[in-house]
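Sample A.
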Amino acid sequence: MTRNGDLPDVSLRLLEIFAGMMQCATTVETAEFLGISQPAVSTGLRQLENQLGLSLFERTGRRLSPTLEARDLFEEIRPLFGILRSFSTRAQNLRSGQIGRLRVISTPPLGYSLGPRALRSFNAARPDVTVSYDVRRLENVLDAVQMGLADIGLVLNNERPETVNSELLARSQMVVLMQEHDPLAAEPFVTAKMLSGTPIVGIDQASQLGRLVSRGFALGGGTYRPGVEVRYCQTAAALVAEGMGMTVVDPYSAEPYLCRGLVTRPFSPACEVRAQILTRKGVPHSGLLLTFMEELRRQLALGHAAQHPLQEHSG
């Protein structure tokens, strides 16, 4: 059935399936994400393609890749999808009688260090507040905040995103994580040349932090040939803890391992990283959000006083 000059009559449910598929790689992942069956996802996609008269996804092995038409349509429905999800979440919270709900999403460096410390203190003082806490990659955090699926995002990002509000939380620099008995631990800082010939656990150079480390080695005249390359700084830190060499990571990722016989030293040349708070544009900060942001700053100050891993922090 069509309306308004033969425009396709697309239901919100089909748009939700489409949006879910754009964020996942397979129909199985989309079904798990939406809480429906895999056949329902496949049927919905076929129905939507028939109604629109467009091919939205191309099969590549076991994965479905969006077509250019699908990407264009997804940009059109992003604002609508975010508004609808926010509306549904608000109605659910009101129905269940929750006093308040805070939705936090973070990239791994802050999500496994500063975020949990702030959340523990925040939650202890507010037992009736429900908190949703998730750790994802940078692009997922940006999307969640922009679409209203999260109230606050915590990221390490040296660029200022245009799609969301960003506030500088702290400046720090990359550090060398090593065993405490290593001879380089006696140095005040470690240069790229000092690491020549040392087994290095590297960060995927397709990532922002991986590119930052690679540039640091190039500027410092060192040779960057990691024997092991991983996606996340936390993984690199875990491998160093198992005696697999050294790594250059952000201080937040190194922090949980400093009580396990590891130490950090500043990496030279200095490679700055910026911790940022992200919030949605056009949406006033709630009292809960403002309180949590203040707790983040307080915990940051406490961590700085205890370990002094940061160069500067800003409220």
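Sample B.
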Amino acid sequence: MVTEMSSLQDLSPNLKCADCALRRQGICGQLSALTQARLARIATIQIYREDQSVWDSELDCGLEGVLISGSLRIQSYRIGGQRQISGLMLPGDFVSEPCGRRNACQLEASAPVRFCRFERNRFRRLLECAPDLARAVYVLRVIKLEQLRLLAWSLCALSIDERLCAFLAMITRVMPYAPLPGGGGILTVELKRADIADLLGTSQESISRITHRLAVRGVIRIHDPQHFEIPDLPKLVQMGCMQDSFASIRFAQSAIRQPPSSDRALGAVAATPPQVTPTPTATRPAFRRAALFAPR
């Protein structure tokens, strides 16, 4: 059952958002002080337990909000009952209906979640009259599409071993990663193995086998099921065929820089959608993908 911290609704917007880790990142980091205050008035903080449903396309009418902490999985079930995870929502992401009402899918908490949910009708009215909010939502949606496109490409073009290497390399950008004095770092994987397997299109047994194989080769060192030491991150990136994509892929937490203070005071954020540079694709997997369709 969702625990709604309704008492926060009675606080002033500044007090409600004062301790939020995303106040200067993601959507809020792009907004003028006026738009931030208006958005805070229609926000409710909700807490979800691990594996709890946040939204169901067959039961719920709509969803708009920002993920503050934790992670959400976008999932559906095939005819045979097998679960498929088609993407993850990470802290800072703008969360809305992921696949409309025609397809049966759900958003569930992969880990304990703190979610800032906006009242739907009032948020959509604010979206029409606040160009800085409209632009921020547009940017975050483009970023999420870039991530989903990269995931789809990896499922088509990479082997299972390469997919896991690419996944471990990418999550160093969004999950706790503590650099070590001698180089490398320790990664904390805040996802269950079952979720990783369904996201990468394989089984838990394969994830376990590949993880230990990488440990034998010295690519990673396993401290426990959630903590991995990565001695050489560039090598892991290369093994995941992400040389061209690792640095360019964007994430919501660091995607939007704050405008100058004078612009923020005036709320002068351009409403024109920004130019989006396509995420480059690594050379070798692109060749392999083309080879899949070559005459035999």
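B remarks: Residues 1-12, 256-296 have pLDDT under 50 and may be disordered. The chain has two domains: 3-143, 159-240.
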